Amino acid sequence: xxxxxxxxxxxxxxxxxxxxxxxxxxxxxxxxxxxxxxxxxxxxxxxxxxxxxxxxxxxxxxxxxxxxxxxxxxxxxxxxxxxxxxxxxxxxxxxxxxxxxxxxxxxxxxxxxxxxxxxxxxxxxxxxxxxxxxxxxxxxxxxxxxxxxxxxxxxxxxxxxxxxxxxxxxxxxxxxxxxxxxxxxxxxxxxxxxxxxxxxxxxxxxxxxxxxxxxxxxxxxxxxxxxxxxxxxxxxxxxxxxxxxxxxxxxxxxxxxxxxxxxxxxxxxxxxxxxxxxxxxxxxxxxxxxxxxxxxxxxxxxxxxxxxxxxxxxxxxxxxxxxxxxxxxxxxxxxxxxxxxxxxxxxxxxxxxxxxxxxxxxxxxxxxxxxxxxxxxxxxxxxxxxxxx
Length: 389
Ligand SMILES: [Zn+2]
Known about the structure:
- The protein is built from 19 helices and 3 strands.
- The chain has 389 residues and is mostly helical.
- The protein has 4 domains: 164 residues, Tetratricopeptide repeat domain (Serine Threonine Protein Phosphatase 5, Tetratricopeptide repeat, Alpha Horseshoe); 99 residues, Tetratricopeptide repeat domain (Serine Threonine Protein Phosphatase 5, Tetratricopeptide repeat, Alpha Horseshoe); 72 residues, no CATH class; 40 residues.
- Helix 1 packs antiparallel against helix 4, helix 8 packs antiparallel against helix 9 and helix 10 packs antiparallel against helix 11.
- The protein is elongated.
């Protein structure tokens, strides 16, 4: 809390100086407002925000000079979670007739933030739409509108406003806009309008050539259309764009190579990736291929060798599974228990992690539910890190 209050200090100091100066200039020379200001300041220093707010609220009269105090107080209330009070202060400020244009626009921005915090998106949207016409506040207003359209899943408007932001020289939001295109592509795909879906995916890749999600969706659409070679190209592009997403394409790629009757090409491709990636899902996929194509001994030999240097839980479970398939033995019950434990651990484990905020989750989200960043959640490698003895 105290760090938020420090934000108020410069404003309070300026207002206090102004208030004290004004009061000292009065004929009777009684510095009433100056005294109040120092009282409020002492409350802030003593970490007594409620008393400080009371004093500053009392000081914040109704003239133009105290608008800064109202703005600071409103922000403080919002940061404390008291959104109703923040809305009341900022609304009252806007209702005044003696504000400068800049003060009115800043109050509108703050009120818009209050409404966003309160979940009143329609009211926030109206305020930010008005501010789009004000050059000094246009960029921030457009950014906030993009946020609102995302929350409302109005992807077309979100894309339009990304373009507008770029046109006025604001922050480029190519990555976000590409994901908005992917959202529209997924919706079209659900309606079985694959041509439209593919158009949106091309649009996404034009905006962001590194959009892995677009290629992942292109691959799935091509598989559905029976065009497995196109699907393989799209899935391989995902690996080229960001190897971190490779675990997402292992299963569909395996299926495409299988349908085309190209097991050796699949093995060759996996071996190429394995030179730089020893994650659990890749190890598991290679073992699965060896088991099908070359038998138990080849798969076990590979796993025994791989797990020595790159231990993974998925690889271990695959090894136990193969041993279990060999039938009844003295260690059968132990292997069953080991398989059950490793399966439980894998089922309960978070498989994805946000590179931005560290949020962990069981399934892939393209927009992090915690920090709201796009494209920051990636598959975790399921690799047990070996430490020096
Ligand atoms: Zn995050």
